[in-house]
Amino acid sequence: MIRVPMEGKVLNENEKAAAALRAEFSRHNVFVVNLIGSPGCGKTALLERTLESFDPSRRVAVLTGDIQTDADAARLARYGFPVRQITTAGACHLDARMVRNALDGWDLANLDLLFIENVGNLVCPTSYDLGEAHKIVLLSVTEGEEKPLKYPGIFFKADLMAMTKIDLLPYVPFRADVAERNARQIHPGIEIVRVSSTTGAGMEDWLRWLRAASAGLAVHFMLAGNNCRAPV
Amino acid sequence: MHEVGIAAGILDAVRKETAMRPAARAVKVGVRIGEMAGIDPESLAFCFEALVKGSDLEPLALEIHRAPADELEFVFLELEEP
Fold first, then answer.
1. DSSP strands (E only) in A118-229
2. Within a domain: A220
3. d(CA B54, nearest CA chain A) in Å
């Protein structure tokens, strides 16, 4: 009997596909974020509000993942930006191959910002790198403030936590400070914004985070009316 | 939920590794899984066993080492050589 060392990541095929995507995004200066959260936490609503705030000339696109239906793509397409639905037909997460296939026919040279809305799930999407620059975890105030402790993986890997539905804070027992403390217990460096896609509260903080996070890239998707250069 | 895919990935990697050593038979594969990797070790072990059963790799065993962060990587492969 011999024992040989074995190297590499278990999800090697996905890692390879994700690395290829990341190189491709980097070559075309596309800033990519992967939005992850429970079903119903407001991923699509946040994207709707975000797209609504962008000038139509901005070079922004969305891939949205669901197990079934293209309902989210229909919602998001109303804002005039390119949107594609990825229907996973049962799979509980997106993987890099699905993203690559969904990008087929899109010229990345014409894009500055790509949102990937993952399947509603706090567990499985954690393990699958999609070539994104950042994972963003959404936690709505109608969930429990202990969620970061129950699902530590995604809070550990996400660079930003967006606390959503904050307009409901007066009506639910959710303690926002406790939720934030729990998130920081898992990931001390995690950044946090509080937003309401319904009232628009906190949207500026979210958009400011996006701008800051993409600052290293030649990305031009700022808010309409802001001082921004024309797309290169 | 996604542990079946992870288990299938492990089997594929073992097949690739043993393809380079046609005379050997894989006996056990070791993987390191972090607390933050989003993988339930028990569920992974269950899926692994289910996939191995009746396959060309039976009776391959899985050894899981826990780790603190988001590790999800191979550690070793045990082979029986004639």
1. 134-140, 160-164, 191-194
2. no
3. 22
pLDDT over threshold 60, residue A20: yes
Q: Report the alpha-carbon distance of residue A91 to residue B43 in Å, rounded.
A: 16
- Determine the topology of domain B3-80 in CATH: hypothetical protein PF0899 fold (3.30.2320)
d(CA B24, CA B14): 12
Lowest mean pLDDT among A13-22, A191-200, A217-226: A217-226
Whole-number pLDDT of residue A232: 29
Instruction: Flag if B2 and A123 touch (Cβ within 8 Å).
Output: yes
What type of residue is A167? D
Q: What ipTM was reported for this prediction?
A: 0.79
In degrees, rounded to 5, the angle at the alpha carbon of residue A94 between the alpha carbons of residues A90 and A99 is: 125
* Nearest chain B residue (CA) to A91: B2
Q: Can you give the residue range of the structural domain that contains A60?
A: 13-213
When the pLDDT of each residue in chain B is averaged and rounded to a whole number, the result is 92
Residues of B in contact with A148 (CB under 8 A): none
- Domain for residue A108, yes or no? yes
Residues 85-144 of A with CB under 8 A from B: 91-93, 121, 123-124, 126-128
